[in-house]
Amino acid sequence: MWGRQDVPYDGDTPENVVSDTTTCFVERDTASCRISVVQSSVLYTFYRHHPMAITLDIGATTNMIRASTARMYNLPITPSSQIARQADGMTQLDVIGEIHCNVTRGSLSFQLDTLVVKQLAVDILARHPFLADNGVAVRR
Fold it and tell me: Which residues constitute the domain of residue 95?
């Protein structure tokens, strides 16, 4: 039987249970839940005259940019001896260098210090160091 006390369950008829973060389908003695997925926040900036979307990720520990994106913006890539791993803590990312530049949004300027990696799900991923260094906070 499903363990939530606030959900009536008669054991015979399925019912849908909806909360702020999950949708659960209860049938007989099992429950199937889907966890809500919320898109990451994006900070829209400019590098020189090029628009640049930076995906903000508050939980991770390093900033990253996809190598093809760095080349597209003609960002200066310098060598790096730093390594980075995926969230599993084991799989190493292929770091090919690092970038140190400023991006702007209106009259604001943000320092972007990031590792350049061959493969990344988004163009630019700004994580805790970017947020902390630039005084950026994410509100939902």
Answer: 41-134
